[in-house]
C-alpha cells in the first residue's frame, strides 16, 4: 500500500525551495531542476505541483507578493505625509528581509517584461501599490504637506523615486546605508512641501 502524502505540506516544502532559489539565484536561476535540487528531490516531484516553468514563475511572483505584504509597516495612528513616509520606507531594503524581497522583485523584471502574461501581473501589482499610496498623498495634500495637483502624478513620481532608491541601495549598499535611505526619502518628501 502506498504511503499517504500530505500534499499541502509537500506544496509548502516546494514553495520554500522556490523561495530559497529565488533569494540566491533570482528569476534567472529559477528552474524546475534548481528547485528539485534545492529540495533534494526529483524534477518529477516539482512538476507534480508546477507542471511548467511558467507555472513555477507565476507561483514565485505570488510568493514574492505575499512576503511583501508581510513586510508592509503599519501606518495606524499616522496621517498624510507621516503615513506616506512610513509606507514608502516599507519598500526600501532596510533589513535583510527587505533586501531579499527587493532582490527578488528586481530579478523578476526581466522575466516579466519578456512575457505578456507576467507583464500583465506586474502591471496590476504596480497599479495596486499606487492605489494604496493615493489616499495617503491625498491626505497630505489636504493637510498642505504636499502640493496641490493630480495625486496620481505625485504617486507615480514618489513610486519612481522610491524604486530608484531601492535599485541604488541594492547595487551599492555601502553608499546607501539604511540611515541614508531614510534620510533621502525624508528629504525628498520635505522638498515637495508647498
SSE layout and pairing:
Layout: H1 7-25, H2 32-39, H3 43-49, H4 53-71, H5 80-89, H6 96-114, H7 116-142, H8 151-171, H9 178-191
Helix pairs in contact: 1-2, 1-4, 2-3, 4-6, 5-7, 5-9, 6-7, 7-8
Short précis:
With 194 residues, the chain is an all-alpha fold.
Can you tell me about this structure?
- By secondary structure, the protein is mostly helical.
- The chain folds into 2 domains: 7-60, Arc Repressor Mutant, subunit A (Orthogonal Bundle), CATH 1.10.10; 74-191, Tetracycline Repressor, domain 2, CATH 1.10.357.
- Helices cover 74% and strands 0% of the residues.
- It is built from 9 helices and no strands.
- The protein has helices at 7-25, 32-39, 43-49, 53-71, 80-89, 96-114, 116-142, 151-171, 178-191.
- Helix 1 (7-25) packs across helix 4 (53-71).
- The chain is elongated and about 60 Å long.
- The mean pLDDT is 90.
- In the CATH hierarchy, the architecture of the largest domain is Orthogonal Bundle
Q: How many independent structural domains? A: 2
CATH homologous superfamily heading of the largest domain = Tetracycline Repressor, domain 2
> Pairing-aware structural class of the strands and helices?
mainly alpha
Average pLDDT, all residues: 90
Largest sheet: none
Radius of gyration: 19 Å
Low-confidence stretches: none
Cα-to-Cα separation, first versus last residue = 74 Å
How many β-strand runs? 0
Features:
2 domains; 194 residues; 9 helices; mainly alpha; 74% helix; Tetracycline Repressor, domain 2; Arc Repressor Mutant, subunit A; elongated
Amino acid at each position: 500500500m502506498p504511503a499517504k502524502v500530505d500534499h499541502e505540506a509537500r506544496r509548502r516544502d516546494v514553495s520554500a525551495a522556490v523561495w530559497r532559489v529565488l533569494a540566491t539565484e533570482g528569476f534567472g536561476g529559477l528552474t524546475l531542476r534548481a528547485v528539485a535540487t534545492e529540495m533534494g528531490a526529483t524534477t518529477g516531484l516539482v512538476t507534480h505541483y508546477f507542471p511548467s516553468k511558467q507555472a513555477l514563475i507565476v507561483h514565485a511572483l505570488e510568493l514574492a507578493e505575499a512576503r511583501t505584504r508581510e513586510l508592509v509597516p503599519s501606518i495606524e495612528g499616522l496621517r498624510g505625509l507621516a503615513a506616506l513616509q512610513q509606507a514608502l520606507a516599507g519598500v526600501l531594503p532596510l533589513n535583510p528581509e527587505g533586501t531579499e524581497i527587493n532582490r527578488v522583485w528586481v530579478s523578476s523584471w526581466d522575466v516579466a517584461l519578456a512575457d505578456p502574461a507576467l507583464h500583465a501581473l506586474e502591471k496590476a501589482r504596480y497599479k495596486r501599490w499606487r492605489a494604496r499610496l493615493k489616499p495617503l498623498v491625498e491626505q497630505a495634500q489636504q493637510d498642505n504637506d504636499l502640493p496641490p495637483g493630480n495625486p496620481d502624478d505625485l504617486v507615480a513620481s514618489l513610486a519612481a523615486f522610491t524604486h530608484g532608491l531601492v535599485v541604488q541601495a541594492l547595487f551599492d549598499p555601502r553608499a546607501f546605508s539604511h540611515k541614508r535611505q531614510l534620510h533621502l526619502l525624508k528629504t525628498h518628501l520635505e522638498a515637495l512641501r508647498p
